[in-house]
Amino acid sequence: MSSFARLLIAVSMALSILAKRHHHELASNPTDGTSSAGYNTSRVGPANANCNRQTYQLNITSNNFVFQNVDSNANETILAAMFQDFLPAPANYSAMHENGMQQVSNTYSLSGTLCTPKNSAKNSDYVQYLIHGVGFDSSYWDFSVNNADDYSYVSAAAAAGYTTFRFDRLGTGLSEKPTDAYNVVQAPTDLAIATAFGEMLRNGSIGGQKFNKIVGVGHSYGSVQVQALTATSPSLLDAALLQGFSNNATGQGYFLAGGAYSTATEVFPQRYSSGELPNAYLVTLANQTQQLNFWYYPYYSEAAFQRNRETEQPVSQGVLFTQTGLIKNATDFTGPVHVVTGAQDVPFCFRDCYAVPAGSPYSSIPEYAKDLYPKAKNFSVYIPANTGHAVNTHYSAPAAYQEMLQFVAQAFS
Ligand SMILES: *[C@@H]1O[C@H](CO)[C@@H](O)[C@H](O)[C@H]1NC(C)=O
Ligand SMILES: *[C@@H]1O[C@H](CO)[C@@H](O)[C@H](O)[C@H]1NC(C)=O
Ligand SMILES: *[C@@H]1O[C@H](CO)[C@@H](O)[C@H](O)[C@H]1NC(C)=O
Ligand SMILES: *[C@@H]1O[C@H](CO)[C@@H](O)[C@H](O)[C@H]1NC(C)=O
Ligand SMILES: *[C@@H]1O[C@H](CO)[C@@H](O)[C@H](O)[C@H]1NC(C)=O
Ligand SMILES: *[C@@H]1O[C@H](CO)[C@@H](O)[C@H](O)[C@H]1NC(C)=O
Ligand SMILES: *[C@@H]1O[C@H](CO)[C@@H](O)[C@H](O)[C@H]1NC(C)=O
Ligand SMILES: *[C@@H]1O[C@H](CO)[C@@H](O)[C@H](O)[C@H]1NC(C)=O
Ligand SMILES: *[C@@H]1O[C@H](CO)[C@@H](O)[C@H](O)[C@H]1NC(C)=O
To answer: Where is the signal peptide (predicted)?
Structure first.
């Protein structure tokens, strides 16, 4: 072997060791902001709040869909074929891949963070309960680019004197990622977890404090859960703030197809290993498909996009196929309801929130959610301009937070 060839081999070995070390650091270094947790785990919250992150063990029983002819470790060919079954005809998909319901009981390990304002808490026994959506973890609510606080809703809330509680949904962030991506990680399980955390906020199991007023705040699939809570447990929440939400399903198929959802371990091998995540945990395939679903160009910074992509979280195929089924008529909910949806939201407005049918009694698509709230004390809608589905990551976020907090102030008054 020539010395040049030996040199090449030595260089390529060194590079591969460097690459491995780099991957290892990406997966485990808590301060570089790109751990598989999806957030900078050294950051527990913004500078203006005292935050406590904790792992909770929740015993959950839920009435789940029974999937059939599925395999959480099926390859991408099979997963894509399932999208083809589902997209044109969800009912046909159900006939092929679902077979009744079953009770599923498990203890789940879930990470939650309580943040209280450092100065001038308005009411220490009031809390905003924050539930994030698909593709994110709880850091959606403390979205931070270069460790700054200006996109952090937790920070805006603390500045206004409010306590917040957020948690990583099952299968995201620091929470457990169960290996069954169909029968376990699906919408009824998530709703049962959301219900349990709400009850725990009421009964003193979180922060040693019995919160007596709770405003539920969701984003996207998190809003679907908050909406479902107002229907299934109408006295659990005092008010509901549904961000990135409507009850118009037109954009949902586009969301599922446009994201080109693909096996997380193949798209982000540096962050997710097949030992940790089965194949049916998915992420959007490429930067552009993430952009299609969540962003409205050019009304955000490249750094915000980069931060989101570097920390994108997986979603189980079970959740993707069951999520919108949770939305229900909240006939007994009497609190106020506020919907905040970006004017160019794709999944819930099909990129135009003002595209109502001719002769509509409403001026925007999100206003139709009023039909789900016959007894609500008040129903209102805010549509930030130049904003896509991920409201908290666009330039409009700080102004949107002030508007949201006005609603929260009224709800707590
Ligand atoms: C991670 O969080 C720590 C603690 O807040 C902070 O000092 C550090 O700058 C953060 N890293 C990044 C990349 O934001
Ligand atoms: C959850 O269930 C386990 C096993 O049944 C039990 O030991 C534990 O005390 C329960 N935990 C809670 C918080 O109820
Ligand atoms: C995926 O799995 C199916 C069923 O086992 C198999 O027929 C197919 O060849 C596999 N595709 C690839 C690309 O491995
Ligand atoms: C769905 O199933 C119905 C009844 O079996 C069938 O007529 C229809 O062609 C199917 N649609 C699709 C898109 O597969
Ligand atoms: C609080 O609520 C949770 C969830 O429903 C329940 O498991 C727990 O036993 C309750 N704790 C108390 C002290 O009531
Ligand atoms: C995708 O976005 C990430 C984060 O912004 C960036 O590092 C990467 O180069 C982009 N990939 C491509 C193919 O553009
Ligand atoms: C639902 O959304 C579609 C797509 O934007 C729109 O054409 C339709 O008018 C909307 N329907 C209602 C009732 O808002
Ligand atoms: C919700 O229930 C109320 C009262 O029963 C009814 O008037 C309303 O039409 C229902 N809305 C929807 C969307 O089903
Ligand atoms: C209803 O909500 C709107 C918008 O938040 C607010 O301006 C109005 O004061 C509220 N009305 C009541 C009766 O709370």
So the answer is: 1-19
